[in-house]
Amino acid sequence: MKQLMMLHRMDKIRTCPVADGWHIRTFRPGEEQIWLEICRHGLVDENCTDALDWAIIARENLVPEKDLFFACREDDVPMATTIGYVRPSGVGDIHMVACRTDARGHKLGDALLGRAMAKLKEEMPGENRITRLTTDDWRLPAIKGYIRAGFLPVLHDDDMEERWKKVLAELGFNGIPMVTEDGEDTGIIL
Fold first, then answer.
1. What are the backbone angles phi and psi of residue 77, rounded to the nearest 5°?
2. HEC sequence for 72-139
3. How far is CA 120 from the centre of its chain?
4. What contacts 112, CB < 8 A, 6 or more positions away?
5. Are strands 78-86 and 92-99 parallel, antiparallel or unpaired?
6. Cα–Cα distance measured from residue 69 to residue 80, given in angstroms and rounded to the nearest whole number
């Protein structure tokens, strides 16, 4: 089963300040295991050891030192992460959004997403900019945050409309526009 896809037209970027006692910074060489440990909090299996290879190294144009963000405590310990990079096609990509369980509740995902989206908007060429992400049906808190940030559900497979109806009903949303992979409107999910 394909993952859900969402798209942002990059027209209005929602920024969210980081909570008191927290700051956002980019990845530093040598922090690979810290990043992996954050991702083990619901994004990858706890025994995963190859996420760095398929999530970062194999992605053309992704430069961790400028594209991978951490939300850190005052002592500079990373507790949440996201990646925002521009694919060779010129389309933005939000990737690997994760937060340690013991750091949830501080809206770190919202702050990280806003920072990554602002960076993408600066880097992306042209006027018709779009950013995409993929997620799983069960990641309801993440999907809620993406919708608040302006991402729209994408109709990219036969079962997507029904799956999106179910997810949005569980979140209490209705009247959300659905779009194609290119950002064209396809209707409203009621």
1. -85, 120
2. EECCCCEEEEEEEEECCCCCEEEEEEEECHHHCCCCHHHHHHHHHHHHHHHHCCCCCCCEEEEECCCC
3. 12
4. 24, 69, 71, 80, 81, 82, 97
5. antiparallel
6. 8
Torsion of CA 104, 105, 108, 109, to 10 degrees: 80
Confidence of residue 116 (pLDDT cuts 50, 70, 90): very high
Domain count within the chain? 1
**Residue 94 contacts residue 67 (beta carbons within 8 Å):** no
* CATH number reported for the structural domain that contains residue 39 in this entry: 3.40.630.30
Other C-beta atoms lying within 10 Å of the C-beta of residue 147: 17
The residue segments making up the domain with residue 22 are 4-189
14-18, 55-59, 72-76, 115-119: least confidently modelled range: 55-59
SS3 20: coil
Task: Look at residues 22, 46, 28 and name the one whose alpha carbon lies nearest to residue 36.
Answer: 46
pLDDT interval class at 190 (50, 70, 90): low
User: What is the pTM assigned to this prediction?
Assistant: 0.93
**pLDDT > 70: what percent of the chain?**
99
